[in-house]
Amino acid sequence: MPNLTTEYQFHPLREALYNELHIRPFYTLESPQLMTHLAACCERQDELQQAFDLLCDLCRRYEVNQPKSGTVSYHENVGSFVIHWERHAEFYSLTIMHNAVPDLDAPFAHTAIDLLPADWLKQLPGQMIAAFHLVIDHQHLSYEHKDLARYFEGHPLMISSAYDDNARIYTAFKLHGDGFSRFIVRNFHLNDTQLGQLVRRLTDMETYRLLALMALPLAKKIAPQLVDMDKQLGDILTVVTNEETTNSERELLEKLTRIEAALEAYRAETNQRFSATKAYHQLVKDRLEGVGEKRIEGQLSLGEFIARRLNPASRTCESVKEWMDDLSTRIERASVLMRTRANLTLQEQNRLQLAAMNRRSKLQFRLQETVEGLSIAAISYYAVGLLGYLFGGLPLDEWGLNKNMLLAGSIPLVLAGVWIITRRIKRRLILDQDKTAGD
Fold it and tell me: Which among 98, 208, 264, 364 has most CB atoms closer than 10 A?
């Protein structure tokens, strides 16, 4: 028989993946039973750690084994009751179970949470989102209409059959006078394992139902703002095609940027919550399916009631999320459109400026040619004047030459010479400029 620990190299996550299936196990329950379930949301990770430290403190008080560091699920019998604690991503839950017969007249008069130290309960961190009592009855209580009305303080009830009518579930989904919600599970023929599975699914269902609904007030708060943003975006897109000045386009672009910034702030605020709502909603549906609920004629079932309120709430959150995504896409398109328009306007302005510069360059060139001609005339004039002085100092009469005739004959030669020299200087300057530009 080969020894796997010596002959194979295991993936570092192998053991963790095996244990993942057992990280939140079902527990067995006996009938009758009194239970209280709490779930508290924690905005910071240190609050989850504080809840774990309080759990360790409770274990020390009752002298039972403490959970190991990093434990996410803890189940322990502390004598007169059993405690079940779990750590989740954004909340922790605490379930207290006490094996006792409920009071026949007031089954919720004495609850399992009463067994915990009051000073310890006051230290629990986070904000309590779920808090309910659950009574598991094994044919002790009366289920007459008047008695059920007394148990649930007169609230309308939802009643469902579970596990092929081997159990029935009663609840009002209401907060009662003590601030807790209430459930009664009437056990007919469930064994301890089946009962534990049923109760676990009920506690998960109620906790996840409340967590899924946390995004609804946020969606209702943001929806009017989105209506206003949608209208502003529509107004911008309506007038943008009629705007012709750069200043107006700049103002519209700044307004569009402010809308986009506000929208991204809303998305950052709600993205995690809306995603969590979708996940929790699916978990609620999974737990209801696991209960194997069947409708009782003439009674509103748990699934019908939850679907009637939770499904629209979930769709509202999903609709607001899609609305924000659509607005973001449309704002991005509008920004691209306005920036393209601004670029086209800028290009047109640049074209006009280049045309004006071209006209100025041509004018400057013509002016330069005029100045160049005048310069040749002026230089030639001074050169002929110098020749006049030169001829005046020579004995032209002795040579039989006339000064004025010599000066008149030299003018074309001087003009040609000055023109040739000027052209050469100009050509050399142009060649040097082209060489410098090429380098």
Answer: 208
